[in-house]
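just leaving the lab so this will be short. below you get a single protein, a line of residues and a line of whole numbers that encode the local backbone shape. id like you to explain what the token line says about the fold, in plain words if possible. thanks a lot i owe you, the record is right below:

…
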Amino acid sequence: MKIAVLDQSTLGDDLDLSPLMDDGNEVKVYRNTSEEQIPEHLRGCDVAVINKVKLRGDTLCRCSSLKLICVAATGYDNVDIEYCRQNGIAVCNVVGYSTDSVAQLTAAMVLYLADHLPEYTESVRSGDYTAGGTANILVPVVHELAGKTWGIAGYGNIGRKVGAIAEALGCRVIVFKREPVEDAECVTLEELCTRSDILSVHLPLNDGTRGAFSREMISLLRRNCIFVNVARGAVTDEEALADALEEGRIAGLGVDVYSSEPFPESHPFSRIKDRDNVCLTPHMAWGSFEARKRCLDDIVESIRSFREGGTRSRVV
């Protein structure tokens, strides 16, 4: 099969793509692909491997040889699924590969903000600690997470892993899930916002979740709340989050995902990115080396399954 990798740069230069050549596959690798370049880069190709590239119907209609799209991610909102369904293009995603990686960053963001690590490390770097003559600095005040309520929006693989970490830290876990489960304390989204001392978001982006954390929902957050979004930027009102942070209506903000990536200078987070109670990262939570290797291995298996007439990891 002829395979084109359209945005290798988003997968990391340290990831060996040679497993895609198994079974005699012919592989073309493009570091990046603009929307205008998609038809050219996919000319004559059976399979497209993408991460962030957007494949819309008005572009896919010019890719006549394409039979399979493999998304190197769990979310596939960057693919026109309905067009693919109507035109016989199979789509595969990868589930579960990044669970440990994303959960690890989620916990790291919460601890970074809860322990005021920017302020404390700066007191040492600046020389204030050395010059102060006191054995310790205890401002700003740190509060233990044990006994706090950690709200989790979205309770799939990642949400469950974060819940286990939260419980290990001594937190009470509450969950918002559209279809409640018996093994967790499930609440409404409104109750999640009003009760959570920490709130982490792990929702997929779809018509039902887009803008779920609206300005109204964000207004319900507690003043001591640490809010973390490692899902998709568009599930939140980013302007409202920036306002809440600036106005002191939430205690801290950690975000790894944005409605526009990379976010432009005009983005509301640009005005808060330098604050000590803000932790913004460049959509890297999913990207530990181990997670990326698992993702690639899964894609190789899905291509092999497709070639043999199987439907492994198919969403269409």
Notes: The two ends are 19 Å apart (CA to CA). Residues 289-307 form the longest helix (19 residues). The mean pLDDT is 97.
